Each structure stands twice: as structure tokens, then as C-alpha cells.
């Protein structure tokens, strides 16, 4: 078997609605582009980039990058080198930043793919400088996350060492940007301004999706939305301002009626309180449906839309299957071979996450490789 190029790995495997498929993920690239344009309008004159890490939040890096390019995006952020190479294959002329920074020994491949690392330590700056020819880099400052970044007290030293390279961006990352009244936001902005002052002629970036909506408007020269592009709500305290992008469908594999007291699924976590019509769909935790969406007494369960009716998950989510209570769904919609909706206009990412005890980011990024993928839009 030959080597599969990074971009090729991200293409759809089969046509959606193929009889062999039991799950279909439809990605609305027009909605993705519209979300980017809306955020670009809010950027107060700053450039609007796009974060496409984690396979564009689970929705497909190559198709997402191409759609965003058509919308006007020219700057992209990925997590690691391999993602950067895939993004470069899809966007030969774009500016691409690698948030992992400079992993030891990765410099040669970064240079070969024309990728720009976000350097987060004095040692990384020195190592990157050693590649010669004043290579481009972002300087990432830690203003409170304590995960990556040059500490603020080392800003002066970072500025001195950065004379050996060509800084193209100074950046930091918020801890609590989804909390508009959190005092940490103001403290982080002040710390970033202190570091940025030592790079006064270099573009600056701090705003992720949620920070675009903060009252301080910390847009600087470049905003870098991610989650909001893909339909996630960047303002959990308000109505979602972006369009949904992902629609997830699953096929019903079997139906039956069970008697009162009959249990469903592993560990017998759910028992029928009355005669119940049930349907088994062909997705499970191997496809990214969280086990936390399991239906049992005393907790919210996941739901699917069956013929326009919400039907709860019953019993444990298993590797390949979820069982639904379809007692109230139209019988013609709850038949073997029909399709149910797990994500879409009516069941948003945030609701699916809440019912599983997790966050929308995890719902999107865990969408599995077994789904047939259909891309609609530009």
C-alpha cells in the first residue's frame, strides 16, 4: 500500500446513504463560510483567521480549509506539524501557524512545509533561530493559562532573543473568555499589553471565538475563532450567534416491543416501566457518541429526532449501538432502515453535550471515522 497524503486521508470514504453505511455526517460548508464572514465583520478591522486543528474540530480539515479560503480567510492555525502539512496541501499560499510550537527535531519539516511555529519558551526561540536565515515565528506569551507560552516576566529577554528570528505575530490565550464578567479576562489583557509593548511593530492576537464577544473587544490585529466557525455557541450566556454546521444521522437497524420490566443494554441500567417500542441505531461510542449520554433513571439522557419527535436514549451507550424509546414516534419513521437525527437544527451541539455531561468541543472532535461524510455548499 502506498503512502496516503495527509489531505487525502480527510476526504469522504463513500457516498452518503450507501446501504452499507449506518451513520452519515453532513457538513454545511456554506454555513461554515457564513460563520467566518460574520465573525470577520465583528473583528473591528482586525484580520479574521481560522483555527482548523483537530481535523477542523472533527468536520474535515481539507474541505473546511478550502471553504474558508473561498470565503476570504488567509491565516490558519493548527495544533501540530502533521495537521500543518495537511493544511498546506489544501492551502498552498496561506499563512499557517502551528500552536504546538517547535517540537525538538521538527524544524526541518516545519521549514519544508513553510509552517510558522508559535514559540512558547526562550529555548524554542534559540532553537528556531539556529535554523538560520531569520525564520518566521509567532511568540506565544502565557498570561494565565499555565499551559504554553513565554512567562510575562521573561518578555524583555524574549524580545532580545527574537532579534535572531522574524516575529510575525505576538499572541496569548484566554482562560475564561466564555465568561464575559470574569476578572481574569481583564488581568490577562493587561499582562498581554505589557508583553506586546516590547514588540510594538508586530501584529498581535489574543481573541478566540468567545473573546470576540467580550466587552473589552480584545481583537488587536488578528482574531482566531475556532469553535464558533463549526456551529458551537461562543456565548453560552446568550443565544447562539452562529449557524449550525454539522448534521449527524444514524440508521435504525432493528425495532421491537418489550414488556414492562425488561431491561435494555449492558448492566441493565434501564428497565421498561411499561410496554415500550424500541429501536436500535447503528452508532455508538466508537463513533464518538459519549457514554455519558446513557439513559438510566435519575439523569438526562441523549436524544434523537425520529420523524420530528424527540426520542430518548435508553440503556447504556455501547460501542456500536444506541437504543431509543420510540414509543411516541410515528411508526413509519421508526422502522428498520429509516434514519434518525442526532445533531442538527433541532438538537444542537451544546444540548447534545449537556445531556452527555460534557462540552460541545468534545462532541464535535470525537465524531468517528466510520461515518460517511457529505459536504454541501461551496
Quick structural summary:
By secondary structure, the protein is an alpha/beta fold. It has ten helices and 20 strands. α1 crosses α3 and α3 (61-71) packs across α4 (81-90).
Features of this protein?
TIM Barrel, disordered N terminus, single chain, elongated, Lyase, Ornithine Decarboxylase, Chain A, domain 1, 2 domains, eight-stranded parallel sheet, eight-stranded mixed sheet, 10 helices, 20 strands, 378 residues, alpha/beta
Explain this structure.
The protein contains 10 helices and 20 strands. By secondary structure, it is of the alpha/beta class. Strands 1, 12, 15, 16, 17, 18, 19 and 20 form an 8-stranded mixed sheet that branches. Helix 1 crosses helix 3 and helix 3 crosses helix 4.
